[in-house]
Amino acid sequence: MESQIKEGISAAFQALYTHDLAADDVALQPTRKDFEGTYTFLTFPFARVSKKGPEDTGNELGEYLKQNLAAVADYNTVKGFLNLVLSENSQVDQFAAMFNGTDIASSPVFKVERKNKTVVVEYSSPNTNKPLHLGHLRNNFLGNSVARILEASGHKVVKVQIINDRGIHICKSMLAWQRFGNGETPESTGIKGDHLVGKYYVAFDKAYKKEIAELVAEGMSSELAEKEAPILKAAQEMLKKWEAKDPEVYSLWETMNSWVYAGFETTYKRMGVDFDKLYYESNTYLIGRDRVMEGLEKGVFFKKEDGSVWVDLTDEKLDQKLLLRKDGTSVYMTQDIGTAIMRYEDYPELSQLIYTVGNEQEHHFRVLFAILKKLGYSWAEACYHLSYGMVDLPEGKMKSREGTVVDADDLMREMAATAKDRTMELGKIDGFTEEQAEKLYSVLGLGALKYFLLKVDPLRRMLFNPHESIEFQGNTGPFVQYTYARIRSIVRKADQLNIDLVTIQYEQIETLHETEKDLIHGIGLYSEKLHLAAEKSSPAVIAQYVYDLAKGYNRFYAEVKIFDEGDTEKRNFHIALSALTAQTIKLCMGLLGIDVPERM
RNA sequence: GGCCUCGUAGUUCAAUGGAUAGAAUAGAAGUUUCCUAAACUUUAGAUGCAGGUUCGAUUCCUGCCGAGGCUACCA
């Protein structure tokens, strides 16, 4: 539809002003609600071409389109705004072309052109010393949704994560467990593995702070005390032993990590995210170290007197960066270099490598990409940091050591509980089995949470109030889910009545309700929105779109009698339009990783 | 100090340089005779401040004020 109009405007410029304006260069925008029309064309920039005022230009173009384009039934011009009113015929045609019964995949609007490109999308990538929290939820939902969006746009997508399983943080948990753990295990305590390990991370911090306080009391400066606290020294010693593969340390490390992985697995499953390939820092840091040593030999990097290895990025205005400590151990950057190289070796055909990581690490990734480039990897250009804003609480930033984090497992559980309360109040689970009801609560709670976190532009930092943020009314996941469930109810009824949606006589439908026009137009925007979302790596585009669609449907639902309609073809059309809307909603919610219920 | 984000209704979010700045929520008033009121309708309410570019600025530029992040031999 849109391309028809663009062609028409292009032709009009040729016919009226003998001016070349490629159809692709015609910019159309949606007509504002207060004016009649569907598409609006701005004539301000073309006053020079037409040698007339914007309003006259609009009138001339409008008249030409009305005469020569069947789709344009009428027009109106306000200042430089040419509003085009579509003919009802053309809109019915547009619907007929989009609707293909229940077989959505074969519908032209939803058809996907497979591109021969592989995109690697990284997300989650937690440390293994503590459980996942609210920040990880935004990360996982965002990365997973972007992967789905790219997949739906025709790319081959590989979902990966780097598991930060080595380093000083896990040594802290290990040390604390050794000293204070009394042999506790997830089995012995009934505590989920990731939470148990997290408990000892907190215990370490407590002991560390206590030691600092004691040293300061003995007269040491707090700055020095932070470095000299014996328990920290012991953790650093443990890291060295780990890198030397000391059997006792290594075995404890394997045990505690396995607890954490079992815990993460449960959480991911509940979140509805998964991965195609996992990378472990304990493997990649070795590659990173080798490549750094190679770079050192080639003179890309340099060594300081104390033996530490650095890269000089002052030419890129990025300062110097440490790559290997003087004791030879690796830092975060070292392993990230190795991870990137491994990924490229695993997927040499990749055209993009997306890192879903918070905006606090923007500097880190600028440095990483600059280093990869300096090492001569042409694919460094294909690396992209999908940065997103932090999730803040009303009292400020979440701090895991101060216990102000919102735990992912707790939050998901609470969401489902709220969904249950709400559903019970409304008395909507007649005929549900216990199992179906529980499933529904989980779908609704998770839908509310995912939608809440995804509807905001990723770049923005956002506020999460645990007690107020998640609603089930208005611009929310459950609102969209409810709209879907309502339509499914209609389609079930139509099935019972043996209504045939495939052989609708569209030529008998001569008039359309305003809400029907809006819906047809809205559904037609799907592929445009999908591409925009892919281009911007922004699920928020999809969330806004599907909300508008659902809202439009609810208006239709309230204003149009769907079954109670004398004209059989019209009735069938109402149902078909409902069915196509439901299909579109399901598809969009799928892009966000949100399930839709058949009943609620 | 330097670099990077961001300041929109009471609150949480929208707005490729375009019309009278959209939603949701909280507030006020309504809607239940096909289909699910987790819905629909009406109403009131906002661009931090000061300049500049433009026919036109929430959007681009400059300065100021305010919030956050980065600037680790943490990850």
Can you walk through the features of this model?
With about 600 residues, the chain is α/β, with parallel strands linked by helices. The protein has four domains: about 1-85, Arginyl tRNA synthetase N-terminal domain (Gyrase A, domain 2, 2-Layer Sandwich); about 115-165 and about 275-290 and about 330-405, HUPs (Rossmann fold), CATH 3.40.50; about 165-275, no CATH class; about 410-590, Isoleucyl-tRNA Synthetase, Domain 1, CATH 1.10.730.10. The protein has helices at about 1-15, 45-50, 55-70, 90-100, 135-150, 170-180, 185-190, 195-215, 220-230, 230-245, 245-270, 280-300, 330-345, 360-375, 410-425, 435-455, 475-495, 515-525, 525-535, 540-560, 570-590; strands at about 30, 40, 70-80, 80-85, 120, 155-165, 275-280, 300-305, 310, 320-325, 350-360, 385-390, 390, 460-465. The protein has a five-stranded parallel sheet, with helices on both faces. The longest helix has 25 residues, at about 195-215. The mean pLDDT is about 90. The chain binds one RNA strand of 75 nucleotides through helix 14, helix 15, strand 14, helix 17 and helix 20.
Short structural description:
With 600 residues, the chain is an alpha/beta fold. The chain contains 21 helices and 14 strands. The protein binds one RNA strand of 75 nucleotides through helix 14, helix 15, strand 14, helix 17 and helix 20.
If you average the pLDDT, what whole number results? 92
As residue ranges, the low-confidence spans are: none
Report how far apart the termini are.
Answer: 35 Å
Rg, rounded, reads 30 Å
Beta content comes to 5-15%
The CATH topology assignment of the largest domain is Isoleucyl-tRNA Synthetase, Domain 1
Number of domains: 4
Specify the helix fraction band.
Answer: 40-55%
